[in-house]
Amino acid sequence: MKKIIIANWKMNPSSEKEAVSLAKAINKKGIVICPPFVFLSSVSKNLKAGSSKLKATLGAQDISPESQGSFTGEISPSMLKNLGVKYAIIGHSERRMLGEINYLINRKIKTALKSGITPIVCVGEPHRDPQMKYLGFMKRQITETFKGLSPKDFKKIIIAYEPVWAIGKSAEREATPEESQEMAIFIKKVLSDHFGRGSVKNLKILYGGSVNEKNAKEFLTCGGVQGLLVGRVSLDQKKFNEIIKNS
Fold first, then answer.
1. Which of 1, 13, 48, 145 would suit a FRET pair with 98, their CA atoms being 20 to 30 Å apart?
2. CB within 8 A of 239, min separation 6: which ones?
3. Looking at the domain 4-13+31-245, which fold is it?
4. Of the candidates 26, 106, 96, which has an alpha carbon nearest to the alpha carbon of residue 58?
5. Do 162 and 122 form a contact (C-beta atoms < 8 A)?
6. Which residues contact 98 (CB under 8 A, 6 or more apart)?
7. What pLDDT, on a 0 to 100 scale, did the predictor assign at position 1?
8. What is this structure's pTM?
9. What is the structure's pLDDT at 171?
10. By C-alpha distance, which of 242, 237, 232 is closest to 9?
11. Is the CB of residue 30 less than 8 Å from the CB of residue 5?
12. CA-CA distance, 22 to 217, in Å (whole number)?
């Protein structure tokens, strides 16, 4: 199965010029570039212009659960599609920390699917306890996040496992490829039990927890995943290209 590498720029960079320059530097096949909404148009146009052919694919960092209407500040699926967006990150831990609950994420997934945009759905536990209660948390999160979907829907969905406890400055420690593999198996089991065995056929699972140029290869080879969701390091073209090289 072909590896997929997602570059999640979050609320970076600060200018259009920087965004376009970075996009050109990592414009390679198998890459999904997810810039802030305000840079989607310029990144798309510049990668398609002149001799710089669009090899990477565009993704959005979020999507509205609504198709259209009076929803101030929201970005509709049709707006994204008109900019050439093919993917949308949904349910990222940073969005969940702002109050997004499983029900809302579920609606966003369904809206994305209906609009022909591939959802990159993030799941992950905030803590990992010795009693393994985190497995119960994950089971509930997965079943609620994907509630009402059919096995065939999962052919159009990518799941990104991001252990919240291993992310950012407050990280307890780095996750291991073995833990990634364990959770990839667990995610497939929960999906298979609740949505049918067809839901995990050809399912792509990514790992996304403080991925860098040093640990990326090991997660791809030993982590039971088919790709990576890369945050901070995707803003460093040298380090990110190292990840691409080893994928």
1. 13
2. 212, 213, 233
3. TIM Barrel (3.20.20)
4. 26
5. yes
6. none
7. 62
8. 0.95
9. 80
10. 232
11. yes
12. 22
Are 114 and 81 in contact, with CB atoms under 8 Å apart? Answer: no
Instruction: Please name the residue ranges forming H helices in the chain.
Output: 16-25, 37-48, 77-82, 93-96, 102-115, 134-145, 177-195, 216-222, 237-245
CA dihedral 245, 167, 120, 40 (to 10 degrees): -70
pLDDT of residue 59: 97
Ranges of residues in the chain with a pLDDT under 70 are 1, 49-53
Q: Give per-residue pLDDT as tens, 171-203.
A: 888 899 999 999 999 999 999 999 999 999 999
For the chain, domain boundaries: 4-13+31-245
Active-site residue set: 92, 162
Strand pairing class (4-8; 57-60): unpaired
Please answer whether residues 65 and 108 qualify as being in contact, where contact means their C-beta atoms are separated by less than 8 angstroms: yes
N- to C-terminal Cα distance for the chain? 12
Cα 229 from Cα 6, distance rounded (Å): 5
* DSSP class per residue in 51-114: T----SEEEES---SSSSSS-TT---HHHHHHTTEEEEEES-HHHHTTT--HHHHHHHHHHHHH
What's the CA angle centered on 231, arms 225 and 233, to 5 degrees? 100
